[in-house]
Amino acid sequence: MLPFTYALRNLFRDPSRLAQTVGGSALVVLLLMVAVALNEGMDSVLSASGSSKNVILVGKGSEESIERSEVHLDAESAAATSIRGLDGRLGTSAVSGEIYYQAPLETGSGHKDQALLRGVLEKALLVHTKVRLLEGHFPGPGEVMVGYLAHRKLGVDADELSLGMPVKFGDSQFIISGVFAAPGTVLESEVWFDRNDLATLTQRDTLSAITLRLDSAELDDVQVFSLQRNDLELAAMGEDIYYSKLGVFYQPIKIMIWVTAALVSAGALFGGLNTLYAAFAARIQEMATLQSIGYTRFALLASLIQESLLATLTGTLIACLLAYFLLDGRTVPFSIGTFTLTLSPLVILTGIVTGVLLGTFGTLPPAFRCLLPSLPKALRSS
Known about the structure:
This protein is of the alpha+beta class.
Protein backbone atom coordinates (compact mmCIF):
# COMPACT_ATOMS: atom_id res chain seq x y z
CA MET A 1 0.00 0.00 0.00
CA LEU A 2 1.12 3.56 -0.66
CA PRO A 3 1.81 5.68 2.42
CA PHE A 4 -1.00 7.94 3.60
CA THR A 5 1.27 10.98 3.21
CA TYR A 6 1.34 10.36 -0.55
CA ALA A 7 -2.42 10.93 -0.82
CA LEU A 8 -2.16 13.92 1.50
CA ARG A 9 0.59 15.57 -0.61
CA ASN A 10 -1.35 15.00 -3.83
CA LEU A 11 -4.27 16.98 -2.46
CA PHE A 12 -2.25 20.18 -2.53
CA ARG A 13 -0.71 19.68 -5.96
CA ASP A 14 -3.54 21.72 -7.48
CA PRO A 15 -5.13 24.12 -4.92
CA SER A 16 -7.86 25.23 -7.33
CA ARG A 17 -8.96 21.62 -7.95
CA LEU A 18 -8.91 20.98 -4.21
CA ALA A 19 -11.11 24.03 -3.59
CA GLN A 20 -13.58 22.90 -6.25
CA THR A 21 -13.78 19.37 -4.81
CA VAL A 22 -14.18 20.55 -1.22
CA GLY A 23 -16.70 23.23 -2.19
CA GLY A 24 -18.74 20.90 -4.38
CA SER A 25 -18.93 18.18 -1.74
CA ALA A 26 -19.83 20.76 0.93
CA LEU A 27 -22.69 22.02 -1.25
CA VAL A 28 -24.05 18.53 -1.92
CA VAL A 29 -23.84 17.49 1.74
CA LEU A 30 -25.38 20.76 2.98
CA LEU A 31 -28.32 20.55 0.57
CA LEU A 32 -29.13 16.99 1.58
CA MET A 33 -28.85 17.88 5.28
CA VAL A 34 -31.23 20.81 4.73
CA ALA A 35 -33.70 18.57 2.87
CA VAL A 36 -33.69 16.00 5.68
CA ALA A 37 -33.99 18.70 8.36
CA LEU A 38 -36.94 20.35 6.58
CA ASN A 39 -38.85 17.10 6.16
CA GLU A 40 -38.04 15.92 9.65
CA GLY A 41 -39.03 19.29 11.15
CA MET A 42 -42.38 19.36 9.36
CA ASP A 43 -43.16 15.75 10.29
CA SER A 44 -42.14 16.37 13.89
CA VAL A 45 -44.35 19.42 14.42
CA LEU A 46 -47.37 17.74 12.82
CA SER A 47 -46.98 14.55 14.83
CA ALA A 48 -46.47 16.47 18.09
CA SER A 49 -49.45 18.78 17.50
CA GLY A 50 -52.02 16.00 17.76
CA SER A 51 -52.70 14.15 21.00
CA SER A 52 -53.97 10.58 21.06
CA LYS A 53 -56.10 11.62 24.07
CA ASN A 54 -57.94 14.33 22.11
CA VAL A 55 -60.86 13.89 19.74
CA ILE A 56 -62.10 16.55 17.33
CA LEU A 57 -65.74 16.98 16.36
CA VAL A 58 -66.12 18.69 12.98
CA GLY A 59 -68.96 19.20 10.55
CA LYS A 60 -69.60 16.27 8.23
CA GLY A 61 -67.65 16.61 4.99
CA SER A 62 -65.01 18.85 6.58
CA GLU A 63 -62.74 16.16 7.99
CA GLU A 64 -59.76 17.38 5.94
CA SER A 65 -59.90 21.03 7.01
CA ILE A 66 -61.10 22.41 10.32
CA GLU A 67 -61.13 25.92 8.87
CA ARG A 68 -63.94 24.96 6.48
CA SER A 69 -65.92 23.18 9.18
CA GLU A 70 -69.09 24.51 10.81
CA VAL A 71 -70.47 23.11 14.06
CA HIS A 72 -73.61 24.33 15.83
CA LEU A 73 -73.07 26.03 19.18
CA ASP A 74 -75.40 23.59 20.92
CA ALA A 75 -73.06 20.70 20.04
CA GLU A 76 -70.52 21.82 22.65
CA SER A 77 -72.86 21.48 25.63
CA ALA A 78 -74.47 18.36 24.14
CA ALA A 79 -71.07 16.63 23.89
CA ALA A 80 -70.10 17.68 27.43
CA THR A 81 -73.28 16.25 28.96
CA SER A 82 -73.80 13.19 26.76
CA ILE A 83 -70.33 11.63 26.56
CA ARG A 84 -69.17 9.92 29.74
CA GLY A 85 -65.51 9.48 30.64
CA LEU A 86 -64.20 12.86 29.50
CA ASP A 87 -61.31 14.47 31.31
CA GLY A 88 -61.99 17.58 33.38
CA ARG A 89 -61.06 19.76 36.32
CA LEU A 90 -63.21 20.93 39.24
CA GLY A 91 -66.43 19.75 37.61
CA THR A 92 -65.67 21.32 34.22
CA SER A 93 -65.48 18.85 31.34
CA ALA A 94 -62.51 19.11 28.98
CA VAL A 95 -64.63 20.18 26.02
CA SER A 96 -63.54 23.22 24.04
CA GLY A 97 -65.56 24.68 21.18
CA GLU A 98 -63.22 26.74 19.03
CA ILE A 99 -63.20 28.97 15.97
CA TYR A 100 -60.31 28.63 13.50
CA TYR A 101 -59.66 31.49 11.14
CA GLN A 102 -56.81 32.55 8.90
CA ALA A 103 -56.69 36.24 8.04
CA PRO A 104 -54.29 39.21 7.85
CA LEU A 105 -53.24 40.64 11.22
CA GLU A 106 -51.61 44.05 11.51
CA THR A 107 -48.96 44.78 14.11
CA GLY A 108 -48.28 48.11 15.79
CA SER A 109 -45.62 48.97 13.19
CA GLY A 110 -48.16 48.64 10.38
CA HIS A 111 -46.84 45.30 9.08
CA LYS A 112 -49.68 43.07 7.89
CA ASP A 113 -49.48 39.36 7.10
CA GLN A 114 -51.50 36.16 7.29
CA ALA A 115 -51.98 34.88 10.83
CA LEU A 116 -53.60 31.83 12.34
CA LEU A 117 -56.39 32.97 14.65
CA ARG A 118 -58.14 30.76 17.17
CA GLY A 119 -61.19 31.84 19.15
CA VAL A 120 -61.22 30.10 22.53
CA LEU A 121 -62.54 30.23 26.05
CA GLU A 122 -60.45 29.44 29.15
CA LYS A 123 -61.44 25.76 29.11
CA ALA A 124 -59.33 25.39 25.98
CA LEU A 125 -56.42 24.93 28.38
CA LEU A 126 -58.05 21.71 29.60
CA VAL A 127 -57.69 20.07 26.17
CA HIS A 128 -54.48 21.71 24.93
CA THR A 129 -52.33 20.49 27.78
CA LYS A 130 -49.01 21.47 26.15
CA VAL A 131 -49.89 25.16 26.33
CA ARG A 132 -47.98 27.03 29.05
CA LEU A 133 -48.49 30.72 29.78
CA LEU A 134 -45.07 32.40 29.80
CA GLU A 135 -46.26 35.85 30.85
CA GLY A 136 -49.48 37.81 31.19
CA HIS A 137 -52.93 36.26 31.40
CA PHE A 138 -55.57 34.52 29.28
CA PRO A 139 -57.26 36.95 26.86
CA GLY A 140 -60.53 38.60 27.76
CA PRO A 141 -62.68 40.90 25.60
CA GLY A 142 -60.49 43.24 23.56
CA GLU A 143 -57.36 41.16 24.20
CA VAL A 144 -55.36 38.45 22.45
CA MET A 145 -52.77 35.91 23.54
CA VAL A 146 -49.93 35.13 21.12
CA GLY A 147 -47.80 32.05 20.67
CA TYR A 148 -44.09 32.24 21.32
CA LEU A 149 -43.34 31.79 17.57
CA ALA A 150 -46.23 33.85 16.19
CA HIS A 151 -43.81 36.61 15.22
CA ARG A 152 -42.05 34.17 12.87
CA LYS A 153 -45.33 33.39 11.14
CA LEU A 154 -46.04 37.11 10.73
CA GLY A 155 -42.46 37.92 9.75
CA VAL A 156 -41.86 40.57 12.42
CA ASP A 157 -39.54 41.01 15.39
CA ALA A 158 -40.57 39.34 18.64
CA ASP A 159 -40.81 42.79 20.30
CA GLU A 160 -43.81 43.68 18.11
CA LEU A 161 -45.80 40.81 19.65
CA SER A 162 -44.70 41.29 23.23
CA LEU A 163 -46.92 41.88 26.24
CA GLY A 164 -48.99 45.08 26.03
CA MET A 165 -48.38 45.70 22.31
CA PRO A 166 -51.38 46.41 20.04
CA VAL A 167 -52.49 44.34 17.06
CA LYS A 168 -55.23 45.13 14.60
CA PHE A 169 -57.69 42.73 13.02
CA GLY A 170 -60.06 44.35 10.57
CA ASP A 171 -61.02 47.72 12.05
CA SER A 172 -60.63 46.58 15.65
CA GLN A 173 -57.57 46.92 17.84
CA PHE A 174 -56.57 44.41 20.50
CA ILE A 175 -53.96 44.41 23.24
CA ILE A 176 -51.65 41.44 23.75
CA SER A 177 -52.49 40.15 27.22
CA GLY A 178 -50.24 37.09 27.29
CA VAL A 179 -47.58 35.04 25.55
CA PHE A 180 -47.75 31.25 25.62
CA ALA A 181 -45.56 28.36 24.61
CA ALA A 182 -46.53 24.95 23.26
CA PRO A 183 -43.16 23.43 22.32
CA GLY A 184 -43.05 21.43 19.13
CA THR A 185 -46.65 22.13 18.05
CA VAL A 186 -48.39 24.41 15.54
CA LEU A 187 -50.22 26.08 18.45
CA GLU A 188 -47.08 28.08 19.19
CA SER A 189 -47.56 30.06 15.95
CA GLU A 190 -51.17 31.02 16.60
CA VAL A 191 -52.92 34.11 17.98
CA TRP A 192 -55.69 33.29 20.45
CA PHE A 193 -58.74 35.57 20.70
CA ASP A 194 -61.63 35.56 23.09
CA ARG A 195 -64.11 33.36 21.25
CA ASN A 196 -66.94 35.86 21.41
CA ASP A 197 -64.73 38.61 19.96
CA LEU A 198 -63.62 36.47 17.03
CA ALA A 199 -67.20 35.27 16.40
CA THR A 200 -68.38 38.88 16.24
CA LEU A 201 -65.55 40.03 13.95
CA THR A 202 -65.96 37.11 11.55
CA GLN A 203 -69.76 37.29 11.75
CA ARG A 204 -70.07 33.64 12.74
CA ASP A 205 -72.79 32.03 14.80
CA THR A 206 -71.16 28.58 14.59
CA LEU A 207 -67.96 26.95 15.80
CA SER A 208 -65.26 25.48 13.60
CA ALA A 209 -64.70 22.40 15.75
CA ILE A 210 -65.01 20.99 19.25
CA THR A 211 -61.99 19.40 20.90
CA LEU A 212 -62.58 16.85 23.67
CA ARG A 213 -59.98 15.29 25.94
CA LEU A 214 -60.63 11.69 26.88
CA ASP A 215 -60.15 10.08 30.25
CA SER A 216 -61.87 6.68 30.47
CA ALA A 217 -63.87 7.31 27.28
CA GLU A 218 -62.66 6.14 23.88
CA LEU A 219 -62.90 7.42 20.33
CA ASP A 220 -65.72 4.96 19.67
CA ASP A 221 -67.82 6.64 22.39
CA VAL A 222 -67.50 10.00 20.65
CA GLN A 223 -68.30 8.45 17.29
CA VAL A 224 -71.44 6.85 18.77
CA PHE A 225 -72.50 10.29 20.04
CA SER A 226 -72.00 11.83 16.59
CA LEU A 227 -74.13 9.07 15.04
CA GLN A 228 -76.87 9.42 17.65
CA ARG A 229 -77.11 13.17 17.11
CA ASN A 230 -77.73 13.21 13.37
CA ASP A 231 -79.33 16.62 13.77
CA LEU A 232 -75.92 18.13 14.60
CA GLU A 233 -74.22 16.58 11.51
CA LEU A 234 -70.93 15.83 13.25
CA ALA A 235 -67.93 13.67 12.40
CA ALA A 236 -65.46 12.51 15.06
CA MET A 237 -61.77 11.89 14.50
CA GLY A 238 -58.68 11.60 16.64
CA GLU A 239 -56.60 14.76 16.81
CA ASP A 240 -53.44 12.79 16.03
CA ILE A 241 -55.15 11.26 12.99
CA TYR A 242 -56.16 14.70 11.74
CA TYR A 243 -52.59 16.00 11.86
CA SER A 244 -51.21 12.84 10.28
CA LYS A 245 -53.58 13.45 7.37
CA LEU A 246 -52.21 16.97 7.10
CA GLY A 247 -48.79 15.35 6.75
CA VAL A 248 -50.08 13.51 3.69
CA PHE A 249 -51.46 16.80 2.35
CA TYR A 250 -47.99 18.37 2.57
CA GLN A 251 -46.33 15.39 0.87
CA PRO A 252 -45.99 17.22 -2.50
CA ILE A 253 -44.04 19.99 -0.73
CA LYS A 254 -41.69 17.40 0.76
CA ILE A 255 -41.21 15.82 -2.66
CA MET A 256 -40.47 19.25 -4.14
CA ILE A 257 -37.80 19.82 -1.47
CA TRP A 258 -36.11 16.52 -2.35
CA VAL A 259 -36.33 17.17 -6.10
CA THR A 260 -34.80 20.64 -5.72
CA ALA A 261 -32.00 19.30 -3.53
CA ALA A 262 -31.38 16.43 -5.95
CA LEU A 263 -31.18 18.72 -9.00
CA VAL A 264 -28.73 21.16 -7.43
CA SER A 265 -26.73 18.29 -5.93
CA ALA A 266 -26.56 16.57 -9.31
CA GLY A 267 -25.10 19.71 -10.86
CA ALA A 268 -22.44 19.95 -8.15
CA LEU A 269 -21.75 16.20 -8.35
CA PHE A 270 -21.23 16.17 -12.11
CA GLY A 271 -18.99 19.22 -11.82
CA GLY A 272 -16.92 17.38 -9.24
CA LEU A 273 -16.72 14.28 -11.47
CA ASN A 274 -15.46 16.38 -14.36
CA THR A 275 -12.78 17.82 -12.09
CA LEU A 276 -11.69 14.33 -10.99
CA TYR A 277 -11.67 13.03 -14.56
CA ALA A 278 -9.41 15.88 -15.61
CA ALA A 279 -7.13 15.47 -12.60
CA PHE A 280 -6.77 11.68 -12.86
CA ALA A 281 -6.32 11.74 -16.66
CA ALA A 282 -3.18 13.84 -16.17
CA ARG A 283 -1.77 11.21 -13.79
CA ILE A 284 -2.03 8.07 -15.96
CA GLN A 285 1.73 8.01 -16.54
CA GLU A 286 2.38 8.56 -12.83
CA MET A 287 0.16 5.61 -11.92
CA ALA A 288 1.91 3.43 -14.53
CA THR A 289 5.30 4.36 -13.10
CA LEU A 290 4.17 3.32 -9.63
CA GLN A 291 2.93 0.01 -11.05
CA SER A 292 6.28 -0.61 -12.70
CA ILE A 293 8.11 -0.37 -9.37
CA GLY A 294 5.82 -2.89 -7.72
CA TYR A 295 2.60 -1.23 -6.54
CA THR A 296 -0.61 -3.03 -7.50
CA ARG A 297 -3.61 -1.44 -9.14
CA PHE A 298 -5.61 -2.10 -5.97
CA ALA A 299 -3.05 -0.18 -3.88
CA LEU A 300 -3.22 2.73 -6.32
CA LEU A 301 -7.03 2.67 -6.29
CA ALA A 302 -7.02 2.73 -2.48
CA SER A 303 -4.67 5.73 -2.53
CA LEU A 304 -6.91 7.61 -4.97
CA ILE A 305 -9.94 6.89 -2.79
CA GLN A 306 -8.02 8.08 0.28
CA GLU A 307 -7.18 11.30 -1.54
CA SER A 308 -10.79 11.86 -2.59
CA LEU A 309 -12.15 10.99 0.86
CA LEU A 310 -9.89 13.57 2.48
CA ALA A 311 -11.35 16.25 0.21
CA THR A 312 -15.01 15.21 0.49
CA LEU A 313 -14.88 14.70 4.26
CA THR A 314 -13.31 18.14 4.60
CA GLY A 315 -16.30 19.44 2.62
CA THR A 316 -18.60 17.44 4.89
CA LEU A 317 -17.05 19.05 7.96
CA ILE A 318 -17.53 22.51 6.43
CA ALA A 319 -21.16 21.64 5.59
CA CYS A 320 -21.81 20.48 9.16
CA LEU A 321 -20.32 23.69 10.56
CA LEU A 322 -22.45 25.80 8.20
CA ALA A 323 -25.55 23.82 9.15
CA TYR A 324 -24.79 24.31 12.85
CA PHE A 325 -24.29 28.07 12.64
CA LEU A 326 -26.84 28.91 9.93
CA LEU A 327 -29.63 26.32 10.26
CA ASP A 328 -29.77 24.75 13.71
CA GLY A 329 -32.62 26.29 15.70
CA ARG A 330 -33.97 28.35 12.80
CA THR A 331 -37.76 28.40 12.54
CA VAL A 332 -39.45 28.01 9.17
CA PRO A 333 -43.04 29.25 8.65
CA PHE A 334 -45.55 27.26 6.60
CA SER A 335 -49.28 27.55 6.04
CA ILE A 336 -50.52 26.24 9.43
CA GLY A 337 -47.64 27.24 11.67
CA THR A 338 -43.89 27.05 11.99
CA PHE A 339 -41.36 24.32 12.61
CA THR A 340 -37.79 24.38 13.84
CA LEU A 341 -34.78 22.98 12.03
CA THR A 342 -32.57 20.85 14.25
CA LEU A 343 -29.34 18.97 13.64
CA SER A 344 -30.75 15.66 14.79
CA PRO A 345 -28.68 12.44 14.68
CA LEU A 346 -30.44 11.52 11.42
CA VAL A 347 -29.46 14.84 9.78
CA ILE A 348 -25.83 14.53 10.87
CA LEU A 349 -25.68 10.87 9.82
CA THR A 350 -27.07 11.81 6.40
CA GLY A 351 -24.27 14.36 5.97
CA ILE A 352 -21.52 11.93 6.99
CA VAL A 353 -22.83 9.06 4.84
CA THR A 354 -23.18 11.41 1.85
CA GLY A 355 -19.58 12.60 2.26
CA VAL A 356 -18.27 9.02 2.47
CA LEU A 357 -20.27 7.91 -0.57
CA LEU A 358 -19.07 10.91 -2.57
CA GLY A 359 -15.47 10.14 -1.68
CA THR A 360 -15.69 6.43 -2.52
CA PHE A 361 -18.23 5.72 -5.25
CA GLY A 362 -17.76 9.16 -6.83
CA THR A 363 -14.05 8.39 -7.25
CA LEU A 364 -14.43 4.98 -8.89
CA PRO A 365 -15.33 6.02 -12.50
CA PRO A 366 -12.38 8.43 -13.01
CA ALA A 367 -10.06 6.12 -11.05
CA PHE A 368 -10.92 3.11 -13.24
CA ARG A 369 -10.32 5.20 -16.34
CA CYS A 370 -6.93 6.15 -14.97
CA LEU A 371 -5.86 2.62 -14.00
CA LEU A 372 -7.37 0.45 -16.75
CA PRO A 373 -4.86 1.14 -19.60
CA SER A 374 -2.17 -1.51 -19.96
CA LEU A 375 1.20 -0.70 -18.45
CA PRO A 376 3.11 -0.16 -21.79
CA LYS A 377 0.34 2.07 -23.14
CA ALA A 378 0.09 4.04 -19.90
CA LEU A 379 3.87 4.61 -19.75
CA ARG A 380 3.83 6.00 -23.31
CA SER A 381 0.96 8.42 -22.53
CA SER A 382 1.82 12.08 -22.07
